[in-house]
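Justification of computing resources. Each target in the renewal requires a structure prediction run like the one illustrated here; the chain below, 292 residues long, is used simply to show the kind of job we budget for.
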Amino acid sequence: MLNKAGFAERCFDYFNTVLMVLLMVLTVYPLIYVLFASVSDAGSLMGHKGILWRPIGFSLDAYTNVFRNPMILKGYGNTLFVVLTGLLLNITLTSFGAYALSRKSLQYRKPLMLVIIFTMFFSGGLIPLYLTVKGAGLIDSLWALIIPQAINTFNLILMKTAFEAIPDALEESAKIDGANDFVILFKIVLPLSMPVIAVMMLYYGVSHWNSWFQAMIFLQERSLYPLQLVLREILLQGEANANSGASDGDAAMLAATLKYATIIVATVPILCVYPFLQKYFVKGALIGAIKG
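Resulting structure tokens:
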């Protein structure tokens, strides 16, 4: 019986190993494909069919065309401003809101939560949002990409749940020592909630980094374009040149690799941040998933 049980366990382990390797390949290969395609020769790539195991030829023409645009650095600067300033505002306001809602002594706590949750299912839509931003004088301002997204309802609820998991005894002992709510929040609650804070930074940061639609709606001055909108403009220009048949098909071939280069330029910086937050991610994302 022991041998049979040991054999069954080994078969199960082998099956899990093979399955995980296959899942890893399916997950990683699209990223590798994009990387290889971005540095491949455009003409050779267009004639290639099937799986791409390595760059076909080697050419940096797509990256040269992307970074030749003077708006790239400006776009990076605008995006960094939105990400850093937005993160500071997001984490600050979300922390304040979550701390207040996590206090059992807060009056009308349940009605407030119902109103907040209501916004997850119903919204005024794009036109009321545009009129609100315009009425606040934020059109053609990078603040139009920050202030309307200052607090995300789901993130607020996630952080509130994390704050509620902190033992009440810590707060009570701090109050006995004369601590007020600000001291409790900054000296006790936030330091003990670093996993969920890291997850909030990742959620908010990725949202700001990938944002382009609202920039397209609220920004008219090209010097204010964030990176994603600049890359979209480059990509559309490349496709337009390709469709026009300019340069005896050279533009059409370059457009084949240009789209992959824009993906790399847009995603690599935010991917570099993830390893620093990974150790907090699983723990923070599962806050509140198990009820005691």
